[in-house]
Amino acid sequence: MTLPNPHADDLPLIQQSGACQSRPANALVRARRRQAELRATGQLERLDPLQRAATNPRSLRLAINAKCFDCEGGNADPSVQRRIGACEIRACPLWTVRPYQQRGAR
Fold this sequence. Notes:
Layout: E1 14-16, E2 19-21, H1 23-41, H2 49-55, H3 60-71, H4 80-85
Antiparallel strand pairs: 1-2
Helix pairs in contact: 2-3
């Protein structure tokens, strides 16, 4: 006896570049679309690291992210994440824990 699947609409697999993606990937795509819709209507806004740290002042990770964001010039240009990851100020006490660095690049 086979029971009906309540998630039957989620079962089709997405074919991308020869590889199949399962339901979790489909759920991720739907979640991203939903966030984009909320952002477009103004119901969801994206906070920069300084604003995010202000919402949770006890978070060490958010404080480090905010300091690196501020040090690299904030939103002066769109590649701030790349600049933080490529930071060359090794004398900075946050250099080893800065965000957006490549694994093994320490």
